[in-house]
């Protein structure tokens, strides 16, 4: 893999974290291809090949629907997110596709409480080259704990 491609991958990961941390929801779907897969899934289910996921979307249109839900229909205590993402490990790469993974931790801060760990795990990604730059064809957020808070509102 060329350095320029790895730098583009690092930029994709950093920009993604910045957008979700800043609640720039209109931009979140733009990180994905039209026919993308986005899942938030417990590690146990992933490792056993079980399909049950906490969140599972199969297109950019479904991601946009989630954003509508966040803004218009979901009622929850407001909170801030902060992603800490490790450097991506490239598992394979060719001219058009990169398969990579990276560890992540998402911290949650409610305005009147101490910060806590919302979610931790690893991203398993398939990234493709598009005319608009690198985009996620698939992003699996595999979280380590079998337990999550009673609601998972924002993207991981």
Automatic annotation (TrEMBL):
CDD domains for this protein: ring_hydroxylating_dioxygenases_beta (cd00667)
Residue ranges of every copy of the SnoaL-like domain listed in the record: 5-139
| Example GO molecular function | dioxygenase activity
Q: What Pfam families does the record point to?
A: SnoaL_4
| Gene3D superfamilies, alphabetized | 3.10.450.50
The alphabetized UniProt keywords are: Dioxygenase, Oxidoreductase
Coiled-coil zones: none
InterPro entries attached here? NTF2-like_dom_sf, Rng_hydr_dOase-bsu, SnoaL-like
Q: Please state which protein family the record places this protein in.
A: Belongs to the bacterial ring-hydroxylating dioxygenase beta subunit family.
Its protein name is Aromatic-ring-hydroxylating dioxygenase subunit beta
Q: Lineage of this protein's species? A: Bacteria, Pseudomonadati, Pseudomonadota, Betaproteobacteria, Burkholderiales
């Amino acid at each position: 893999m060329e350095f320029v491609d790895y730098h583009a991958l690092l930029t994709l990961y950093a920009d993604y974290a910045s957008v979700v941390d800043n609640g720039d929801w209109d931009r979140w779907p733009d990180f994905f291809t039209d026919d993308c897969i986005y899942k938030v899934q417990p590690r146990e289910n992933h490792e056993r090949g079980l399909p049950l996921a906490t969140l599972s979307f199969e297109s950019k249109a479904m991601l946009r629907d989630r954003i509508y839900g966040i803004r218009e229909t979901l009622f929850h205590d407001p909170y801030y997110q902060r992603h800490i993402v490790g450097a991506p490990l490239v598992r394979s790469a060719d001219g058009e596709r990169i398969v990579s993974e990276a560890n992540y931790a998402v911290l949650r801060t409610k305005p009147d409480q101490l910060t806590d760990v919302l979610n931790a795990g690893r991203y398993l990604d398939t990234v493709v080259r598009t005319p608009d730059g690198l985009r996620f064809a698939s992003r699996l957020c595999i979280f380590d704990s079998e337990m999550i808070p009673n609601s998972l509102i924002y993207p991981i």
